[in-house]
Write a structure and sequence with these properties.
- By secondary structure, the protein is mostly helical.
- It has a single domain, classed as Hypothetical protein af1432.
- It has a two-stranded antiparallel ribbon with strand order 1-2.
- The radius of gyration is 19 Å and the shape is globular.
- The relative contact order is 0.18.
């Protein structure tokens, strides 16, 4: 097979007698990944649904003259949604921790909790879209409250807060940006494994393999 698919589940053979596999899912053909995929390959071939938003976030941070690690954190912050929506900040932080400066993964992790809490001093208001998503009486779960309080007291607080600021206002569907302006930033700040993402022995390599082939049955 020369293309990778989100394929329907099927019995491995006619003699399979184990527990039934999960329900069949709609087939969606994915472009094949290179044998040694880079972060750029993931942006081009797997992060399409998140790409325009994070590119807008990073471009906004760049226009503001923010530090390069903040621009980079904005570029990566929502790509964990390629695995799951819930707790995507924690997911993305875990994906990137072996490969990026610590403050970058830290900012990605704590944007997850801080986005639920306004900070008028820096101009961050509670996103109105959250009223539709969660309801006006929504109270974040205890772990979100705990992590937000921790982040607020941390010396790196503004690193994560700036991600939320550039996250909230970057959903313009009329804008189409390219990854090109950020290639050098990726090169300076991302430790590309020689084996390719997913095929090295890092603690998060399984996450990259999941994105490469999200419907592998086992």
């Amino acid at each position: 097979m020369d293309r990778q698919e989100m394929a329907p589940n099927s019995q491995i053979s006619s003699g399979y007698t184990g527990a039934p596999l999960p329900p069949r899912r709609e087939t969606r053909v994915l472009e094949p990944m290179p044998k040694k995929p880079t972060l750029v390959d993931f942006f081009n071939l797997r992060f399409q649904e998140q790409a325009q938003h994070v590119l807008q976030s990073a471009a906004r941070a760049m226009r503001q003259g923010l530090p390069e690690e903040t621009v980079f954190a904005c570029l990566l912050h929502d790509t964990g949604m390629a695995i799951q929506m819930a707790d995507h900040g924690y997911v993305a932080a875990a994906m990137y921790e072996p490969y990026v400066p610590e403050e970058v993964s830290w900012a990605i992790r704590y944007h997850q909790s801080l986005r639920f809490f306004a900070d008028p001093v820096v101009g961050y208001e509670y996103p109105t879209m959250y009223f539709d998503l969660f309801g006006r009486d929504f109270v974040p779960e205890p772990y979100i409250q705990r992590d937000a309080e921790y982040a607020k007291k941390h010396p790196w607080y503004m690193k994560a807060r700036l991600v939320t600021l550039n996250d909230e206002y970057s959903f313009d569907t009329s804008v189409k940006l390219a990854l090109d302006p950020f290639i050098e930033i990726i090169g300076r700040n991302f430790k590309q494994p020689a084996e390719g993402l997913g095929w090295d022995n890092s603690p998060s390599s399984y996450m990259w393999r999941t994105i490469i082939n999200p419907s592998r049955p086992l």
